Amino acid sequence: MMGPVRELIHSVTAGTGKEPYQITLYREDFSALYPGMARYVLTVMSGGETLAVFRTNTYEYSPLVPLTAETAAREAAAAWEREIRDDPPGLFRKYPPDRAVRHAAPAADLVVLQGSPRADGNCSILASWAVEAAHGAGRSAQVIYPHDLDIHCCIGCYQCYNTGSCVFDDDMTAIIDAVRGASLLIVCSPVYTNTVTGGLKLVIDRMQAYHAERALYGGRQGQKGLLFSVAGRRGEENFTCVTRVVTAFFRNLGIGPAGQILVDRADTVRDIRTIAGMEQDVKERVRSCLR
Fold this sequence. Notes:
The protein has two domains: about 5-95, no CATH class; about 110-290, Flavodoxin domain (Rossmann fold). The protein has ten helices and nine strands. It has helices spanning about 70-85, 90-95, 120-135, 160-165, 170-180, 200-205, 210-215, 240-250, 265-270, 280-290, and strands at about 5-15, 20-30, 40-45, 50-55, 110-115, 140-145, 185-190, 225-230, 255-265. A five-stranded parallel β-sheet has the order 6-5-7-8-9, sandwiched between helices. It has a four-stranded antiparallel β-sheet with strand order 1-2-3-4. Helix 3 links the parallel strand 5 and strand 6 (about 140-145). The longest helix has 18 residues, at about 70-85.
């Protein structure tokens, strides 16, 4: 995304000290992300230093909320003028400026989002083959099991588009760190009611915070994604929703789809290790993506 168009809509000097405080309010056009989205950024500066920051965006305000983002930002600006007169340190404590975000070092070249809650099922076999292929190519690998983690569902608050991070502090932080650092992401899921599993869908939805981070600050290019999926019934039509969900997921994160392995008739086959050439196909796909 190109940098948003920024418009100064309010500016005032407050305080009577040696270094006066400058309160500014900007409107940023984020319509390249979502139709009509705008972010409002309110700051207090003095002596060239940013002392307080408040952000809000139009998508935070649902139809039943009797307030708009611009109204909230302007009201905050007026309140800040009063607080600058009465208690500047208190204001600065409530709205501290941004600190540099420190991301964890990349943990693995290959990350597998293992959507199956069954540790001994066919998806686990697919994931194990992928890890073996990565290790055989001298690359590191990590398998993430969403069903074993503390992941709050996305509530659609859109506050991640203010700062690039989610309002919830849970295990998704480590998952985003892992995906950010991976060269290859594999999404592995059985077909549950014609789509991905619930635990995996939690991760997909909460990855919106990573989409916001990339939109605001830029992100890594050239990452690849593979889809592995297993369906009990016969026919490729059983994977229609899975492929659409995961393709959209990759696109949302700037990850290039690099192929898919879809295994049907699992209820009949039972153990995919009995399918001739399956292990070799999986491993070659992974090696090819990691070259």
